[in-house]
Structures are given as C-alpha cells and as structure tokens.
Amino acid sequence: MVCPHCGEEIPDGVAYCNECGGDVNAAPSTPSPKLAGATATAGTTSTERNRARRMSETDEKIQNTGLGISIVFILALGIVVICLIALFLLLRH
Ligand SMILES: [Zn+2]
C-alpha cells in the first residue's frame, strides 16, 4: 500500500509509515470519490499521488528560492543602474 502522508510504498498492515512515521490508519488525504473515479487503477492513483507530492515539493522550492530570486533581481537592477550612470557620464563628455 501507499502511505497517505508521504506517498511512499509501505508494507500492508503496518500502523505507522516506515518513511515518515505517520499514522497510516488516520489517513488525512483519502482520495475523493471524484479522484478515485477519474483514476482507473491503484497504480495510476499512486502515480497521481507521487506527482502531486512532487508538485508540492516544487512549490516549497519556489517559496524557498523566493528570497534568492529577489536578491538576484536587486543585483540585476543595481547593475542596470550602474550601466545607466556610466552611460550618462560618458555622454556628458
Ligand atoms: Zn509516510
């Protein structure tokens, strides 16, 4: 079976996930009937779940790199301003 918390493959009948330690029986994200109907097989459901997990990880990475992108943007803006000032000084002569 697949852990409802982290999506890792875990042995059947275990109470707690080996990967994340989450309570397998207290499934917080049980697939909705709509989702279960859309996905034909259990394998597809697992793939969908893994894809959703990967997407959430990507979201976290984007949030974590938000500050880094800001710093890069400010640096780029500073370089542009310096170039404009240099150009202005050159044109004055
Ligand atoms: Zn888990």
Account of the protein in words:
It is a single chain. By secondary structure, the chain is mainly α. It has a domain at 33-92. It is built from 3 helices and no strands. The termini are far apart. The mean pLDDT is 79. Bound molecules: zinc ion. Zinc ion (ZN) binds at residues 3, 5-6, 8, 17, 19-20, 22.
List keywords for this structure.
0% strand, binds zinc ion, single chain, mainly alpha, 93 residues
Low-confidence stretches: none
Supply the helix-strand structural class.
Answer: mainly alpha
Q: Considering DSSP H and I runs of 4 or more, what fraction of the residues is helical?
A: 55-70%
**How large is the count of helical segments?**
3
Principal-axes geometry comes out as rod-shaped
Question: How large a portion of the residues is in β-strands, by DSSP E?
Answer: under 5%
* Distance between the first and last residues' Cα: 75 Å
Question: Could you spell the SSE succession in H and E letters?
Answer: HHH
Ligands and ions found = zinc ion
How would you characterize the largest beta sheet?
none
Number-wise, the strands total 0
Q: Give me the Rg, rounded.
A: 24 Å
The residue-averaged pLDDT reads 79
Describe, in short, the structure shown:
With 93 residues, the chain is mainly alpha-helical.
Topology (elements, then pairings):
Layout: H1 33-38, H2 42-64, H3 66-92
The structure holds zinc ion.
Zinc ion (ZN) is lined by residues 3, 5-6, 8, 17, 19-20, 22.
